[in-house]
Amino acid sequence: MARKTKEDAQKTRDQILDAAEQVFYRKGFTLATMADIAEAAQLSRGAVYGHYKGKLEVATAMTEHVIQHTSPFQADPALSALANLKQYCLQEVRSYIDPSPIQRVLFFLYVGIDDTPELLQLRFNWEKKRITQINQLLTLAITHQELPTDIDFDLISLYCQSVIEGVFSIVYFGSMSESERWQRAEQLCTYSLQRLSMPFSQP
Questions:
Q1: From CA 95, how far away is CA 105, in angstroms rounded?
Q2: For the domain bounded by 2-68, which CATH number is listed?
Q3: CATH code for residues 81-197
Q4: Residue 3: what pLDDT?
């Protein structure tokens, strides 16, 4: 019986977090209420408060839950490091655009959290993971002599981050069809990362 109670509690928490994902995506952190989350979860407010003290705790748990269950990037051993870097950039762009739990959570973290320190830290943690992944692939590219050893590592890392953000902006805000947007995204990522093997001119 105790096991069943524990399983039921986890099911209720998942129900709350799934509902919170939709509520925070639509309303943002400031406007969302525990009553909104309870209604979306088809639970009483008491049931929600029985698991979470308030909406900040719900928002934190929701974000961590979705990020934890998002599949990490898997490098293809048959591809070069730079080819894998391109695939990673495209995966990141898609995570911000294609409707999914991670897309809704990222939209929330970048648009709907105001200046709440705990949620800003979660966004920072996501960005830190992105930088770590980029740096790992760049290090591999240097090891495999796809990039020169004396390249300005910090600069190209920032460049790769700007590629993701730039391609996202063009694809998300541009007036392109679904097929064209991803064709252009791949072309932009390919061209941008080809530039890495060219020397940077000094100002």
A1: 10
A2: 1.10.10.60
A3: 1.10.357.10
A4: 55
